[in-house]
Amino acid sequence: MSLSSDFRTFIRIRSAWVLIAAMFLYGIGTGILAPMNAIYLQNDVGLTKSQIAVVFSVSLLLNMALTITVGFFSDRLRRKKGIPLAAAAACIAGLFLYMRADGFVTALVGMSVAIAPSGMIMGQLFAMARNHFARIRPSIVEMAQLWLRTTYSVGFFTGLLLGANLFLIASFRGVLWGNLFGYAMLFLLLFVYREVLADAGAPAPRGGEPFSLLMLVALLLLSCADAIRGLYLPLVVNARFGDPRLMSYIWSAQAVFELVFMTLAGYWAARYGSRTVILLGGALAFATYLVYATVDALPVFFLMQPVYSFFVSVLYGVGMGYVQRMFLRRTGFGASLYVFISQTASLIGYFLPLAIQGVTPTIFYIPAALVLASVGILTSVHLRRRAERSLSA
Predict the structure, then answer these.
(1) How many Å apart are CA 388 and CA 199, to the nearest integer?
(2) Could you tell me the pTM of the whole model?
């Protein structure tokens, strides 16, 4: 099938619009706050660099524990919708606490309650979506997952622009209320969504990937590099150019490119193989980190966003699908595992730059090194698989 016919099929699937809208709104809710969260803790709450890292890390550890625990038992549940519903409600309650933060302890408690359940939302939404499309239209399951992930990205970058304008109108208070509104709308959509259950008697799905610990490690390293960029690039940009809104504009500049590249990367992965496309994305990420570390010109930061957006598309589209295909019979666990890998990477990424004093561009030599290590692992796996195919031919 062609791209246009695949996409028409995707948007016409029964209740697909609810999943699309849920991903979009979830993206808006997270995107409004993401680039300004660390700056909010630094400027409004008055936390130090180390305290910010602790707040992010503790909330992330709780998030990881909940995500992987729920992933283990979610496949035993016939209906999964209650998990993201409860998680969205908890996030709303946590944001109310976070908005009242006036020091390290209150910020830690508020952010932990607001962030810890969120991994269950993303993982279980993708698990529900895979069951939904596999039951109704199995021929486009992988591309449907990519388009849903793209929808999340479009929502995320829409949230970035909204966040920048909310900050201009109502400072950080408006940004936090916007974040809460996104979670509230997500809760309402999930409440009305009629979940499509997996067919228990269906034959074993095809197109899976063999389990590979090395591939999981390679994806972990790439995700770790992206996590460092996600937390520290806003701080570096703010320190260099003195405007918290700039990071929202820089990130939103890649939205349209990611919309295109997520689809392109999915079709390239189907044609040339996922590992090849992931290697290409890693090379582009390496170039971007070197620019961040060495160039002190704001226009160049904007120009690098299309380049970096391809890597993000590969990492969160192709990479996500690769991990899920390792566990086709356990959709809840496969989706949660990928979220858990991203969370683990974020935890590592929060602490590695603490080895460098201050907030300086030299931080980005760390993700560049991580990408090089990942590329080395990916290359070795790729060559070994090619040799195995040659021997079996």
Answers:
(1) 35
(2) 0.73
Q: Per-residue b/e over 34-63, b at no fewer than 16 CB within 10 Å? A: bbbbbbbbbebbebebebbbbbbbbbbebb
Largest Cα span, the chain: 66
CATH number of the structural domain 3-194+209-392: 1.20.1250.20
- How far is it, in rounded angstroms, from Cα 190 to Cα 198? 18
In this structure, what token pair is assigned to residue 234? 């806003």
Q: How far apart are CA 140 and CA 130, in angstroms?
A: 10
Token pair 């400027």 in the structure block, residue: 43
- Per-residue pLDDT tens digits for 128-186: 887 788 777 777 777 787 778 778 878 887 887 787 788 778 777 788 888 888 888 88
The residue extents of the domains of the chain are 3-194+209-392
Sign of the CA dihedral 232, 237, 239, 242?
negative
| Site of tokens 């622009």 | 161
Element (H, E) at 288: helix 274-294
